[in-house]
Design a protein that fits this description.
The protein is globular. It is α+β, with helices and mostly antiparallel strands. A hairpin with a 2-residue loop joins strand 1 and strand 2. It starts with a helix and ends with a helix. Helices cover 27% and strands 32% of the residues. Bound molecules: 2'-deoxycytidine-5'-triphosphate.
Amino acid sequence: TFVTFAWMIATRAARDDPRDSRPLDVVAAAIIVDGRVLLAQRSRPAELAGRWELPGGRVESGETHAAALTREIREELGAEVEPAESVGSPVALPGGLTLYAYVARLRSGTPTALEHLDVRWFSADELRLFDAAEIVPADRDWIPDLCAVLDGT
Ligand code: DCP
């Protein structure tokens, strides 16, 4: 019981808002079309604004990663995707969150920056040349993994 109690305190302390009871998982989509992957330019918060990311967001209570990914891409980009295999390793985020990436197949719609500043398609060669400082810190480690997936398509 003490261990459980200590764990609950530690987990709660790790959240930005202690009343936020959502899971601590964040999912991000690698949408790949014609050998290029879509990156989206964040509009918020200030410290991440202007940086490029794999689009996605927080998993809600009771939601699978696949359902969260589909919902986030519909909300943020106005497109329908089907989540597939994972990309790279999960990344620890500030606030006790963990970020997971998945390949997502585009089913319909044209990904559009509804909540981002911009969206852009990158080939493996473009990704390798892209300035890592322009990518959100958590997503930088995935560049080699994304290039490997793109090279294999
Ligand atoms: N994040 C990241 N890289 C990604 C996607 C997200 O580093 N490819 C980070 C940024 C945030 C956290 O994950 O710190 C949550 O992402 P979002 O703000 O995009 O997700 P939500 O909009 O769902 O979060 P909230 O509801 O808390 O605003």
